[in-house]
Every structure is written in structure tokens, then in C-alpha cells.
Amino acid sequence: MPGTLPADAAVSVEDNDPVKAEYEVYITPELGAQIYLLQYPNVFPDEPYTAERGRQPEAVRIKPKSGFIEVEIPVSTEQYFNKEKGIEFAQSLRKAKEEGSTSFGLANGFSGPKSRMRGNATGPVIGAEASASKTTNESTQDLLEDFESARARGLVLDKKVLGGQILRSEAGRPIYMLGSFRGNELHLSQFNGIAQMRPQFHHIDARWQLERNASRREREAGEPPRHVEPRAVQMSFKPTGDDAQQVGTTDALLKAAQEERWMTLKHHDESAPESWNVYEKGLHVQEVETAPELVSSMTNDQYLDAISAPRPELNARKSKKPAPRP
């Protein structure tokens, strides 16, 4: 779809600011697939999660309705890695799975294992313990002595989980586009949503969950409760007005996240043929000769008003009442 400027948008170009290049702008048709922008605020630009760097995501999962997405990234165990903690965290995750937990945190509605055992939220288990279905009788020291074997059997937490909630395109929010150049053409594709991927500490949640379950069992058996590390809790209150509406929305989101199943996706590296195929066919207008022409529905002044920040002094002058006559 080639773009054209409105008739009143012509501007004069001074000699010291010449036009260096001109591009035909096209907007790609809506794809059957979804396009999401995943931002990694805690990652350096020169350390991308790619196969070339040995950091290609090993698992990707999404809850499309409630809008949560997670990826698993391999972690090098060669240096700066606490092997003992890696084994202990994997054991915690594995035991939590056996007690009914399948995922943790906000993406699962902060729910406990009881709701999961009813089947409200099932899906792939987080972390390296997914490949080990039963608790091993081997001690941590035994596993340390044959660490590589333990790692190959999935008894070491050698992955980190990054996750976030998808911010979808809605009326009143900015529209983000993905631009792709092809010769003198600029092809724009609209994102369906944006998510900031941050570390998820599911292994910590699993240890706390196991302690809480053990404490509950001891209370039910009439035994003195074991010591549980202090943990922040949410104070309850009775909201009113706008607060009540916001709390209701949050409760609905947590309930939806708890009930929705994870959908597993297959990840293709950026250099893979599948990725290049989507790039060429999905992010470019194929028949540019027959593409309908884009015509602006705004004048130049209307466009400037739309993208400019409001000026409070103008609104104040408009709302100021004239002084009464003597």
C-alpha cells in the first residue's frame, strides 16, 4: 500500500537539510498468526538469545486469553554456577510437581496446589525437572559427584525462566509497528501486543510451597508446626468506588490465569529457514503493484494536533470566565 501525503502537507526543504532517501510505504495485511514484541530489559544488546550465542530458548509457552508468556533459556554450568543450589532447586520443583503444582506465580493466578489438582490449570512443568517424573533417592552429594549425569537426567536446574504479561493493542493506546525495508520500500506490520520478559523465580515459589504444604500436614496431624520463613502477605480490605472496580478486574485476571492451560509453542532461531520464510512472506506486501493506495484522512494541522501533547495554558484560557461588568 503506497503512502501519499495530503495536498497541504508540502514543506520547503532548505539546502542544508536535503532529502537523502525516499521510500514507498506499505502496510501488510493482517496475518493469521499473532505478532508480539518481546522486550528483555535485563539483557545486553550484544548477548541475544540466539543459537549462535548458545542461548536459544528451549521452551516457549503462552496463555493467549489471560495474556501470559514464558520462555526457558539454558544456563551455562561451566562457571559462575552453584551446582549444589542447582540440584536443590531442581529437587524442590520436582517435589512440588508431585504434590500437584504445575506452575507458579502470577501466570498461574498465585494459586496453590489444591486448585491445580482439580485440573483448573495444567500444562508443562516449569524448569529442568520436567524430564524427571519421580523423586530420586540420591543425595545431593551423590549427584554432585556425578554432576554431568545428574544434569543429563534433568536433576539440575540449568535453565532460567523469563516471563511477562502481554500488553495488547487497544483503542487509546499507541500503535506499534514492525518495519522491514526491501529496496526502496518500507513494509509496516502491526504488533498484536508487547511483553517485557523478566526473571521468574519459580524455584523459590516451589520451596515456599513445599514448606507451606508440610506445615499444613503437621497441623492436620496435630503436630507442632515447623518453622516457615517469613513471607510477605497481601492485606485484605473492602474496596469502594474505583478501587473496587480495579480489584474486581485483578481478581478476574487471576482467576482466568489459573483456569487457562499453557499452550506450548515451537521456537525457531532467527537464522532458521522457517523464520526467513515468515519474514519474506508474512512481513512484506507481495503484490505491490495492485496494493490499494493509502490516503490520509487528516489535514496537516489535524495530524500535528493528534501527535502533540496538550497545552494546559490553552485549556486554562478557554475555561476562564470573563470578568463581570461593573
UniProtKB/TrEMBL annotation:
It comes from the Eukaryota. Residues 305-326 are annotated as: Disordered. GO terms for biological process: tRNA transcription by RNA polymerase III. InterPro entries: RNA_pol_III_Rpc5. Residues 317-326 have a biased composition (Basic residues). It comes from Viridothelium virens (Speckled blister lichen). This is Uncharacterized protein. GO terms for cellular component: RNA polymerase III complex.
